[in-house]
Amino acid sequence: MSHSLSIGQWTCPSGNQVEVLFTPNTLKGGEATFMWDEGPPLRPDDQAYYLQVIRPQALSRVLALTSQQKQSIFHPKGDLR
Hints:
Largest sheet: 3 strands, antiparallel
Radius of gyration: 16 Å
Number of strands: 3
Distance between the termini: 31 Å
Strand order of the largest sheet: 1-2-3
Number of domains: 1
Strand content: 25-35%
Structural class: alpha+beta
Order of helices and strands: EEEH
Number of helices: 1
Helix content: 25-40%
């Protein structure tokens, strides 16, 4: 059973907040869940902030996390790189 990891929390211009949780999954790679205080549809300024700030940062953090996990899987302790 996988546990969710908090990727981050953001506050939109309206004050609406979102926390992004990532649940690793060996078959699919993982799943990101966006937990909004006030769910979609978002206000236009919040939608723009989501597209320009939140989504890219969340994706970057997930990619960094999964990259670290892959390195730990494919580079066992003592591996000479």
